[in-house]
Amino acid sequence: MASSTSSYKINFTTGVAIVVANMVGTGVFTSLGFQVVDIQSGFVLLALWAVGGLIALCGALSYGELAAALPRSGGEYHYLSRIYHPVLGFLSGWASATVGFAAPTALAAMALGSYAANVWPGLEPKVLSIVVVLLLTAVHATSTRAGSRLQVIVTVAKVVVLVVFIGVGVAVAVPQPIRFIPQPGDWHLLLSPAFAVSLIYVSYAYSGWNAAVYLAGEVAQPQRNLPRILLTGTSLVLLLYIGLNFVFLYAAPLAKLKGQVEVGFVVANQLFGSAGGRLMGGLITVLLISTISSMIFAGPRIVQVMGEDLTGLRSLAVVSNAGVPVRAMLLQTGLTLLFILASSFQQVLVYAGFVLNLFTFLTVLGLFVLRWRQPHLPRPYRAWGYPFTPLLFLLLSGWTLLYLLRDQPTESLYGLLTLLSGVGVYFLSRRRPTNTA
């Protein structure tokens, strides 16, 4: 019985659920309020989400080839180690393990607590956030099979709720005076600093499109399924995001959206009144459970693979009888709870966004390096549109990174200092005990 449990493999449906759940989280429900401060064109705002989706799709196409050629869990950690040097791979894993999963998990948990408090005012948001994280950790630590089933259920619920919200919103909304057809000046706005800075927020909302590659070692037929999982999940989220933001802009005045964090709650109140707003707040609470669950599921696999490769982190590679990296999961949960209790990690997410975007840039660039260095490596899947799709990803991602460096130099510096500390951890973890007796 134990062996059958440990040999359980993630199928195509579960993989798509993990990608969708990782992507559809706090970003799409919070970032539009910041974008409309500088951009009031409906066409440009929807173009912003379309460009963000295009970046994610080009990245997914590129990652699909890497995942098929190098099928092992660990994501960027594995790819960068193989393509460039183990230290660069470690630094990507270090960034993902310390901030990349723990901080967004905490942000989603805190958003869940905030939305739930609007629906049930007697709840303490921070306590609820902690309880949800601990309960989901317990489920995923028990077995991969149970975690997979939970992931599919909550993600299907998420997609159904969003599709219904889009359909009902279009049907009942009082149209706002905003144009979705290009107007004079819109094309210039597409190349403006405001568009580039807003694209950083959108990129965060799309982050998670590469989630399945962290679990490559646990996916059934990874060479065949991983590219399909990445493309299907990313395409589905692209359609959902454009639909959602169309409804947000179509149904609510821009003045009510400006600077607002709880965009979904504001629009639901506009559409259905206060009772509808509370209902939507409850539904978004359920949706965020899916996001938290997927990050708790995927993140520890990076730490596990790092532990397999580095002597000093070997204890984190230990898995349970069910094949779950429980120690790595507990480490990530501990960091998540620390962020929740500190309740001041938004700035951490900004600098983490710079670091994580830097590593996805280097990974897609590695597609060219790998083809040059190992032209005869078996590639069951080749990136569609190569070399144009990965080049487009590099161009757009590099553009946003440059603006982030220019407009957020302090957070970018903190990100580089995080990487510098990771170099020290890497060399310490490679040291073997001097006494081997």
UniProtKB/TrEMBL annotation:
The keyword Kinase does not apply. Its main location: membrane. It is a multi-pass membrane protein. It comes from the Bacteria. Pfam families: AA_permease_2. The keyword Transmembrane helix applies. InterPro entries: AA/rel_permease1, AminoAcid_Transporter. Keywords: Membrane, Transmembrane, Transmembrane helix. The chain crosses the membrane at residues 12-37, 43-66, 87-115, 127-143, 150-174, 194-217, 229-252, 279-303, 324-342, 348-372, 384-406, 412-429. It is found in: Membrane. This is Amino acid permease.
